[in-house]
Amino acid sequence: MNQIVESNDHIVQDKWNKVEEIKAMGIEPFGRKYIKLNMVEDIINSEVEFDKDPENYNETFQTAGRIMAFRPAGKNAVFGHIEDQTGRIQFYIRKDVVGDESFEVMSKIGTGDFIGIKGGVFKTGKGEFTLRATDFEFLSKNIKPLPDKFHGLTDVETRYRQRYVDLIMNREVKDTFIKRTKIISHIRNILTQKDFLEVETPMMHPIVGGASARPFVTHHNTLDMQLYLRIAPELYLKRLIVGGFDKVFEINRNFRNEGISTRHNPEFTMMELYQAYADFEDMMDITEEIITSCAKEVLGTTDVVYNGKELKLEGFKRIHMVDIVKEVTGVDFWPEMSVEAAKELAKANEVHLAPHMDTVGHIINEFFEQKCEDTIVQPTFVMGHPVEISPLAKRTKDDGRFTDRFELFIDAREYGNAFSELNDPADQKGRFEEQVAEATKGNEEANAVIDEDYINALEYGLPPTGGLGIGIDRLVMLLTGAPSIRDVIMFPQMRKK
């Protein structure tokens, strides 16, 4: 025996022994191609007449999957369940149907193994939908025993570190990721039907930009230059609008070198889109359409219970940031005031300010984040962010202290960010310079380098443009009831053991 036995556990040893016995029968224990004609779900949903006599089957199916349960029914028959990504079905194999030689293989088979089955369907006396084999084929041996079927795989650390076992044992986990795929596909369909062009932009950037966040840093040896994993694709997507595309979008990963929590993972999926000749109000409309439509597509309803709260995912509220601050705290920031006066209000209301927060705009935003954000339950577009915290957004026409920007909040969590894009190259350069100044004051999320090429692109001309970003992971959490972002990312980042 030339296999490496990774464990002294008798179960593992017994499985390796079975491998040798299967080989001795002339069968490959880790097999090759099998023609799978039917998914389990298709068999279950098929409209066939049931008959226990295989001679009377009017349709034959051929499927394959992992054995999730296995039990002898006397010496000459076995029952079991196989599962694929679409569902689970009972199977029934009789010695007098498949033949002595084939049935002998059943003594080497167990839970966790893969088999292919061909046969018809019937219902047992208890009404269980069952595939009765006229032929079967052994496909691959399982070596590591699956977790106890009664207790399952419940340890969270193990579930995230060994997602493959989690997917095997917990059907609801598989269903979550199937829904994730459907959500992303549906968003893609919505946008392509609106004539948006799906594009790809660089993952490695020579300059950090497009958002306020700490980047991951890497180095390219041949070019001998420092590069950053992108924190956002925004500036490259807007370069495409400059280049003459009217509507573009990208669904891809962003990377931010920040904390890990139930809401944050260092790499996460974003959908960003940009539309020429549009503004932030158009972005509100398309944001609501995407989320409402996804809910109907995946759940069949816009009424969702998440985190113990009943949510209505349509008819989103719209409110200015200054208005919600006044509504929640009673503090009115509409009248212009000095920084000193704003700081006094912050002190009186126990709003903490970091050293670099030395403008009224910063203080308004801190009032919102610390006092108001947690009060939002139903979907709400919070508009009018101060210009100091919105370096890429167009100023509001009638009040240059604020911008044509919104963030979408549902149950105190941000799901989207959008604005009318700043297309004045002089104003944009000034905003970048303010970001550099903030970085020198200790704001680690501020961009410390000006992207001169982006300014150059704006000087060629960016039409009026609306831009939007939606966090895919959080949207999937919302529509699947997942409490943690790790539940909707296949392989979340984990600490070393």
Automatic annotation (TrEMBL):
Mg(2+) 2 binds at residue 414. It is an enzyme of class 6 (ligase). The keyword Nucleotide-binding applies. Residues 180-492 form the Aminoacyl-transfer RNA synthetases class-II family profile domain. Coiled coil: none annotated. One of its GO terms (molecular function) is lysine-tRNA ligase activity. Mg(2+) 1 binds at residues 407, 414. Its cofactor is Mg(2+). Binds 3 Mg(2+) ions per subunit. It is found in: Cytoplasm. Keywords: Aminoacyl-tRNA synthetase, ATP-binding, Cytoplasm, Ligase, Magnesium, Metal-binding, Nucleotide-binding, Protein biosynthesis. It catalyses: tRNA(Lys) + L-lysine + ATP = L-lysyl-tRNA(Lys) + AMP + diphosphate. Its main location: cytoplasm. It comes from the Bacteria. NCBIfam families: lysS_bact (TIGR00499), PRK00484.1 (NF001756). Homodimer. This is Lysine--tRNA ligase. The lineage of its organism: Bacteria, Fusobacteriati, Fusobacteriota, Fusobacteriia, Fusobacteriales. The gene is lysS.
